[in-house]
Structure formats: structure tokens, C-alpha cells
Amino acid sequence: MSLILVHTKVETPIGEMDLLATDRGICLLEFDVRTDLDEEIESIRKDFDAVLQIGENRHTLELKKQLKEYFELKRKVFSVPTVLIGTDFQKKVWTDLKKIPFGSTVTYKEQSEKLGDVKAIRAVAKANGSNKIAIVIPCHRVLGSDGKLTGYAGGIDRKRFLLNLERNENAPKDLFN
Questions:
Q1: In the CATH hierarchy, which top-level class contains the domain 88-167?
Q2: The pTM is what?
Q3: In whole numbers, what is the pLDDT of the chain averaged over residues?
Q4: Is residue 1 predicted with pLDDT exceeding 60?
Q5: What residues have CB less than 8 Å from 134, skipping those under 6 apart?
């Protein structure tokens, strides 16, 4: 029997997102505006040698609930299980991202120092950019070394919105207001 990879959509205040999950947890949460999204979904399907099925499972339903709470400022930490697909280095970077507290930011340099190699700034930035589980693994909390907003697959406006939401600084109800 093949592994089932459930695919569904979730509406957020900053746009529709695609969500993939196995019976073990969430493996993708991406904004549907990504030009390479279909290829990314197919790559994950192949990685798992899975059958892609439109629908829900307990993890997609739980994440939708937790995302709603997050955007209502009722949740600061996601507890839904995640399934990380990447190299050992990428997984190390993503695990570190989950430790950045709600409402806080770090720079790529600070993150690379924390991971033990200040010279790995570019590798850390590239791993952040390869994060497949937006918001839950909060790569939006990482800034350029100069403290400016930089590099977010969902776009800088979404990154700004998420940071403002977490800081509760004049956050609109949705990105499109």
C-alpha cells in the first residue's frame, strides 16, 4: 500500500496557501503564488513515493485551526507535527528557526553564529530559502545582517505583515487592506 500525501488549500489573511501532509505530519505549507509550487509538490510526492490525494487528514485540520489562532494572536507556537524533507544541514537550520521566539527576529549572521559557523551565512540563508513549511517554521523572523527585510519566498510584503502581526504593530486584518 502506497503512502498517501494529502493536498489541501488554506485561506489566510495574506493569501491562499497549499498544504501537504502525510499521516506523520505537515511537509509543506507554501503560498500559492510561488511559480515553482507544482514542481515542489511533485518533488515531495516522489521523495515519499506517495500517492497525491486531495483532501484532509488530522494534521491538515489541526494546522488550519492553529493558523487561525496564530493570525488571531491566540497562538505563538505551533504544535502540529512536521516532516522535514532536506539535507541534514537544512534540517538543522529549520530546527533552529523554530527556536526563534514569536515576535523576535535574528539576522542570518546571528543564526549562522548560533549554528557554530559565522562563515556559513550564505548556506544558512539558502537553507532558510528552502524551507517548505512557511510560518510554522518561521523563516520570516530572519533579517539581513543590516537588520533589513530580505529574502522571503512569499514576498517581502508578507514577511513584513507577519513580523508586524507578531509585534502587534499596526497589523491590518489582512495583507490586502
A1: mainly alpha
A2: 0.91
A3: 90
A4: no
A5: 17, 29, 30, 31, 140, 153, 154
What would you measure as the largest C-alpha separation in the chain, in angstroms? Answer: 51
Cα–Cα distance for residue pair 4/50, rounded to 1 Å = 6
Residue corresponding to grid cell 517554521: 137
Residue 177's pLDDT band, with cuts at 50, 70 and 90, is very low
Domain boundaries of the chain, sorted by first residue: 3-71, 88-167
pLDDT single digits (tens) 127-155: 999 999 999 999 999 998 887 888 787 88
Please give the grid coordinates belonging to residue 165.
Answer: 502581526
27 is catalytic: no
Between CA 5 and CA 176 the distance in angstroms is 31
- Options 85, 127, 134, 139, the catalytic residue: 139
**Pairing of β 142-143 and β 106-107:** parallel
Instruction: Measure CA 49 to chain center.
Output: 23
The Cα-based distances of 92 to 17, 88, 89, 98, 121 in angstroms read 25, 6, 5, 10, 14
